[in-house]
Design goal:
Helix content: over 70%
Membrane topology: Multi-pass membrane protein
Structural class: mainly alpha
Largest sheet: none
Protein name: GtrA family protein
Keywords: Membrane, Transmembrane, Transmembrane helix
Main location: membrane
Order of helices and strands: HHHHH
Number of domains: 1
Number of strands: 0
Radius of gyration: 19 Å
Family: Belongs to the GtrA family.
Strand content: under 5%
Distance between the termini: 29 Å
Length: 146
């Protein structure tokens, strides 16, 4: 099912995704820490604000560098939004559960949430958001090819 070339290509793509994610995470964590440490927001809404800011960075860089997608922005952006919204919900559930439910400090909680959401986002964007568009297949009768 998977050959060495396909696995190597997947590994390269995942490494590119991780690099882009680090840039997005820098924005996410900077906003999270700034909001919490200045007393402007509770850790859960601060994490969600950081997630949204990181998503803006992630979309642009992943579209261009990781997935090299030709899918039109009008289609890719709403797909990205759906995958990101699910990641947003996962972030909220994990952050609320760990900080409010278990009393974990916000940064370790965010690290755990990030670990889960990184894999969700990579797979969602690879398989759906930026995946190549299916090419319609013509039947023998329609195409005239036999």
């Amino acid at each position: 099912m998977w050959d060495a070339d396909a696995l190597a290509a997947l590994a390269r793509q995942f490494l590119s995704y991780v690099g882009v994610s680090l840039a997005a995470l820098a924005v996410h964590y900077a906003l999270l820490a700034a909001l919490v440490e200045t007393g402007r927001a509770d850790p859960v809404p601060a994490a969600l604000a950081g997630y949204l800011a990181g998503a803006v960075v992630s979309y642009g860089l992943n579209r261009r560098l990781t997935y090299a997608s030709a899918r039109p922005h009008a289609e890719a952006t709403w797909r990205f939004g759906v995958v990101a919204a699910i990641g947003f919900g996962l972030t909220w559930l994990i952050m609320a559960g760990l900080t409010r439910g278990f009393g974990l400090p916000y940064l370790p909680a965010q690290l755990l949430a990030t670990g889960v959401v990184v894999f969700w986002n990579f797979l969602g964007h690879r398989l759906w958001t930026f995946a190549g568009r299916p090419v319609p297949v013509l039947s023998e009768e329609t195409s005239g090819v036999r």
